[in-house]
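Below is our example:
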Amino acid sequence: MIRPVRVAVACLFMIAAAAASCRGVSPVMQAQGTLQAAFTPGDDIEALVVGTIEGARQQVLVQAYLLTSKKIASSLVSAHRRGIDVRVLVDADQLERTESSAAPTLAAAGIPVWLETKYQNAHNKVIVIDPNGQDATVVTGSFNFTWTAQHRNAENVLIARKNPALAERYAQNWERHRQDATPYKR
């Protein structure tokens, strides 16, 4: 009698696992590449982000709640000028509220910018670099791409390098958000 109960319990666990996968539980990925963590105050995250963008060879995808850092904006424009495919998503409400947003500067430089309007807060702080290459990189954390995040806040960033599967997952999420976004018009 015990054996059929074990089989039934095992079947229930398999059904529950299958149901969980249908509900959008994210996949577990194999760890690979390198990780670099940095924190403010103390670490120069802004320079770390700029240096990471400067290493891009094909593409830079940005999701920003706030993007006011002149150094980060300048590095995005420089990447665009050297032929890198740079694309940016920003939170529409923050753009409207923040006079120092870099979105107009980026758009004026020819970088496509979209406004996220679907969510109360498009609170992502993500940069995906070269998601289709072996050096694929993801920059993420609490760090808003702002001067204040570097000089006044307690923030963190995690940079995952040489992890194409992770970068591709983030790139797919970026594209899903872009499809729901509105093109920025100056």
